[in-house]
Every structure is written in C-alpha cells, then in structure tokens.
Amino acid sequence: MIYLLLFVCNFTDNATASANCRPAEYSTEEGCCPTCPPGMYVSRHCNQSRSTSCASCKEGTFQDGDNGREQCFSCQHCDAGLGLKVKKSCSSTSDAVCGVLDGFFCSDSNGGGCRAAQTHTVCSPGQYIDQTGTADKDIECLHCTDGTFSNGTSSSCQNHTKCESVGLKLMKPGTDSTDSECGEHGPHRGLERRHVTGIMPGVILVMALMALIIAIIHRKDKKRPPSNR
C-alpha cells in the first residue's frame, strides 16, 4: 500500500511539473527543461546546474519544431519501385515530400505529398478511356455500345465498318474490340481467278513452241555452207 501511495505521489508530481512547464519547455524527471530548436534533438537533459544540451539531426533525419525528443524522425523514402519520386528533399527541419511517377496516381496522400501510389488502370479491349488518368486520379474505363469497337487505348469507340456501303461483302461481323472484316464478292472474284488460270497454260505453250522454232532455224543457218560470190 505504501509503494502504491509513493507511485501515485510521484506520478502526480510529474504530471503537475509537466502541466507547469512553459511552451518552450518540456517535462523530465528533474522538472522542466528548455526545448531544442527545429533541426536538433536533446542529447542531454537539463538539471539544476546545466541547461539542455542539443545536437543536430543526422542526415536522413529531421525535427520540424521545438522539441524535447532524444532522437530525430526518419525522413520519408520516395521509392521509385512503388511509383514515387522526390517532390521536395528532406532537410534537418522538414520531412521529404513525395510525388508520383508518370503512369501512377496517389492512393494515400499526406500534406501535399504522397505516401503510396498505384499504376493507372489499363482499359481492356472492348472498353474506351472515359477519363484520362492524372497524378491524383485513376483512369476510368467504359464499355463500348453495340455497333462500336475499341482496342482499349482510345478515348472513344469507333463504328463498325458497313461493308455493303463501300461495295464489299461482310466476311466477319465486328465485335466490341474488333472492326468488321470485309471482302470482295465471291462469284466475280472466282470467275476472274479461273479465267486467268485457264489462260496461263496456253501462253506458256505458245512461248515454248516459239523458242523451239527459233532454235531449229538457228541450227540450220549454222549448217548451211557459205555462198561464193
């Protein structure tokens, strides 16, 4: 019971001392001590014979206000692997501020900066980009309506080609991600191909006969004796 009373009395004294400390002071077991300025931390607390000893924050750490802390805060790391980049470098008196890399948007913002980022959504084939992605917002995708298509990279869907309107035949209907496939009308194309196919053998035969005749005439001219004049 005595130990409990001593603990309560000690806690009450510390609480009273903390409450009585002025704005530029902090509470310790010895009483109130002067705080350290921004960019510094407490290396040794004050006592009845000396004031607070302060030391500068090491590189990669900071203190952004008057304080009674025995260590500085660690600076935020802007990890490029997480889609972040340095927007403002860390100093002894202020934390780093991170921004987002191209192709990312901030999913967890803080004080004009960003703690976490995500990649912009990639619209799927059959969708179009309704809202372009920014550093603060993701891309918004919407589905194409009937009779239109998109490969997912366009800001709008295109109408399917109407083959009949351009004098062609519909070979394959369009989908929400591909255009219609058009081709020439079959009968005319088939007749033309058969006509060419039937002519070619005759042309080759005629050329072969002409070559043979020329070879025979040339051989006879070589065998004929020269005439005497």
TrEMBL record:
Keywords: Disulfide bond, Membrane, Signal, Transmembrane, Transmembrane helix. One of its GO terms (biological process) is defense response to Gram-positive bacterium. Residues 1-17 form the signal peptide. InterPro entries: Fas_rcpt (IPR008063), TNFR/NGFR_Cys_rich_reg (IPR001368). PROSITE patterns: TNFR_NGFR_1, TNFR_NGFR_2. TNFR-Cys repeats lie at residues 20-54, 56-98. This is TNFR-Cys domain-containing protein. The lineage of its organism: Eukaryota, Metazoa, Chordata, Craniata, Vertebrata. GO terms for molecular function: transmembrane signaling receptor activity. GO terms for cellular component: external side of plasma membrane. CDD domains: TNFRSF14_teleost. Disulfide bonds join C33-C46, C36-C54, C57-C72. It comes from Gadus morhua. Residues 20-54, 56-98 form the TNFR-Cys domain. Pfam families: TNFR_c6. The chain crosses the membrane at residues 198-217.
